[in-house]
Amino acid sequence: MLFGKGLGKKIILMTSILLVFIVSGCSSDDNEATDKQGKENYSEAVDHTIIGIEPGAGITVTTEKAIEEYDSLQGWELEESSTAAMASELDTAMANEDPIVITGWNPHWTFAKYPDMKYLEDTKGTYGEVEEIRSLARKGLKEEKPEAYKLIEQFNWDVEDMEGIMYESNETGDDIDEVAKQWVEDNPEKVAEWTDGVKNVDGVGIELVSTPWDSERASSGVVAEALKQKGFDVTVIPVDVAVVFESIANGDGDATLAAWLPITHKDFYDKFADDFDDLGANLEGAKIGLVVPEYMDIDSIEDLEPAE
Ligand code: PBE
Predict the structure, then answer these.
(1) Centroid of ligand 1 to alpha carbon of 292 (angstroms)
(2) Which one of 260, 261, 283, 291 would you pick to mutate in the ligand 1 pocket, going by the greatest count of ligand atoms within 8 A of its CB?
(3) Distance from Cα 254 to the centre of ligand 1, integer Å
(4) 21 lines ligand 1 (CB under 6 A)
(5) Structure letter (DSSP) for residue 24
(6) Rounded CA gap, 20 and 30, in Å?
(7) pTM of the prediction?
(8) pLDDT given at position 136
(9) Mutation choice for ligand 1 from 166, 264, 267, CB with most ligand atoms inside 8 A
């Protein structure tokens, strides 16, 4: 079983959510006829369609792989649009208790808003187990801007911190940058760990390349604020995942806090792996996968049915 030892512990850290789903058994042992009931209906009811997000996302690439790898997903479509469009389809489905299959991830405020959702068991490990979010820096940053490098290398926080900012911004409507700035003021001990031994500079420019999701707006927001406190002139540029990796590799951007690994951004990472410094995890206990409402009586991706 994929979701065995180790994961359980980490997942408890992952706040509210899910892990009611700590998988209790293998559906392949279950009675075949019982298995088929309902599941087929769900697959037909959702028109063999997974509701996805932006085309350039790592989770989109990974879901295309899942559709290739799982017999149960043969003939399925991934509907690509945007995170906002997915959230609105989810809203409608949940309000009507309709079945829906989405591409989901943590940290994400959706799980705070809808605690009654579960990851489908991923028996083939296409989505991996636990993900971490890593910081990467361009070659040469360490020598050229050592104080920025040191702060970014020391940046580390928890799922709860990131989700707290995302959730508050979503609830209050306040911009994530503002909430992140306030978070830095409210959490001086954590920020002191990141800035430990970092000397003040006088207006040195630093460019953080990031992705447009709330999770990365939160991390870039807090680090930008911490860097500003040390005298840096910080710019945060949100771009597609592919461009994040490309611009760190070719030196256009200084650093990113947005690399989801080992699975989500694997293809992008591998393509440029020799061309940047990997500064390690800034957050542990992230996750991606296929997610359904708790009221759907299935546990595993294998409980779905291929399109005829
Ligand atoms: N996400 C959120 C991104 C990374 C951050 C999981 C939607 C993705 O590339 O899939």
Answers:
(1) 18
(2) 260
(3) 21
(4) no
(5) -
(6) 20
(7) 0.86
(8) 98
(9) 264
Mean pLDDT lowest among 37-41, 110-114, 181-185, 225-229: 37-41
Residue 135 clears pLDDT 60, i.e. is over it: yes
The response to whether residue 241 sits with its C-beta less than 6 Å from ligand 1 reads: yes
**Residue 263 main-chain phi, psi, to 5 deg:** -105, -55
Task: List the domains of the chain with CATH numbers.
Answer: 44-129+290-303 (3.40.190.100), 131-287 (3.10.105.10)
Q: Is 47 exposed, middle or buried (0-12, 13-18, 19+ CB in 10 A)?
A: exposed
> For ligand 1, what atom is nearest to the CA of residue 216?
5
| 110, 87 contact by CB (below 8 A) | yes
3-state SS class at 207 = strand
Instruction: For 90-139, give the DSSP string.
Output: HHHHHHHT----EEEEES-HHHHH--SEEEPB-TT-TT-S-EEEEEEEET
For 53-102, write each residue's pLDDT tens digit.
999 999 999 999 999 999 999 999 999 999 999 999 999 999 999 999 99
What pLDDT, on a 0 to 100 scale, did the predictor assign at position 308? 76
Query: 14, 288, 290, 291: which to mutate for ligand 1, most atoms within 8 A of CB?
Result: 288
Q: Are 289 and 21 contacting, i.e. CB atoms less than 8 angstroms apart? A: no
- Report which ligand 1 atom has the smallest distance to the Cα of 62: 10
